[in-house]
Amino acid sequence: MNQQVNAQYNVAGSGSLPVRIAGHQRKKMYESFLETVKPGRPDTILDVGVTSDRTYDHSNYLELWYPFKDRVTACGIDDASFLEAEYPGMQFVRADGRDLPFAAGSYDFVHSSAVLEHVGNRANQVKFVSELWRVARRGIFVTTPNRWFPVEFHTVLPLLHWLPPGVFRAIMRHTGRSFFAQEENLNLLGAGDVREIGLAAGIESPQVEHVTLGSWPTNLLLIGRKP
Fold first, then answer.
1. Could you read off the pLDDT of 30-56 as tens digits, one per residue?
2. What domains are there in the chain, each with its CATH number?
3. Confidence at 2, pLDDT banded by 50, 70, 90
4. Taking Cα atoms as reference points, which of 118, 136, 124, 123 lies closest to residue 184?
5. Number of neighbours of residue 101 by Cβ within 10 angstroms
6. Measured at the alpha carbon of residue 213, what is the angle toward residues 207 and 215, in degrees to the nearest 5?
7. Is residue 154 scored above 80 in pLDDT?
8. Which of 4, 148, 168, 195 is 20 to 30 A from 154 via CA?
9. What is the per-residue pLDDT across 106-127, written as a single tens digit (0 to 9) for each?
10. Is 22's pLDDT higher than 70?
11. Predicted confidence (pLDDT) per residue in 124-144, tens digit
12. Three-state helix/strand/coil letters over the chain
């Protein structure tokens, strides 16, 4: 089985049930960002990990929903320069989140959604969060899928991702899903992992929250605040 993987590292079709659920959960994450970070009109925001993929209407949700477009710099490894034309006043910078071309404290807040699980091994994940923390003046807000939700949203498969990572990746290879067998493409995390990454990245008191579907956490939120 060879699946077509889009630039969001996803195989679900536009308008499908998993995509509709993902959009619903992204709205919750956006609302949590507003409630916990409380960005104001003067605040600058760096959004790390924007995608060139436009399959889903909630792709790049921060750019879509945040009202002060001119205060947002969108950043990612994809060419998402179309965001500048789509949202006048917004800036796009093409860069890797593990090595950001910005000085320390360049932005009031740094936001990143559903990228942490795609940057590779634990060392790369720590490096990624360290960079977000470095360039933030006031705080960061990072989301990642909860490994312990029963359906894995990228592959749209149930339960297999609960197996040890090596076993899960072997199954992916043997079922024609070799893209997801590579750690650099998918490295899922639980709440404890996210907290450990936050601490290793230099966040003194990382806060790990979640959004739920029913009563089950679907996505984890890493929140870090600076004095």
1. 999 999 999 999 999 999 999 999 989
2. 17-148+187-225 (3.40.50.150)
3. low
4. 118
5. 11
6. 75
7. yes
8. 195
9. 999 999 999 999 999 999 999 9
10. yes
11. 999 999 999 999 999 999 999
12. CCCCCCCCCCCCCCCCHHHHHHHHHHHHHHHHHHHHHCCCCCCCEEEECCCCCCCCCCCCHHHHHCCCHHHEEEEECCCCCHHHHHCCCCEEEECCCCCCCCCCCCEEEEEEECCHHHCCCHHHHHHHHHHHHHHEEEEEEEEEEECCCCEECCCCEECHHHCCHHHHHHHHHHCCCHHHHCCCCCCCECHHHHHHHHHHCCCCCCEEEEEEECCEEEEEEEEEECC
- Token pair recorded at residue 72: 């947002």
Using a cut of 0.85, tell me whether the model's pTM lies above it: yes
Vertex 31: Cα angle to 10 and 188 (nearest 5) = 35
Residues near 195 by Cβ (< 8 Å), separated by ≥ 6?
206, 208, 222
Tokens encoding 85: 């034309």
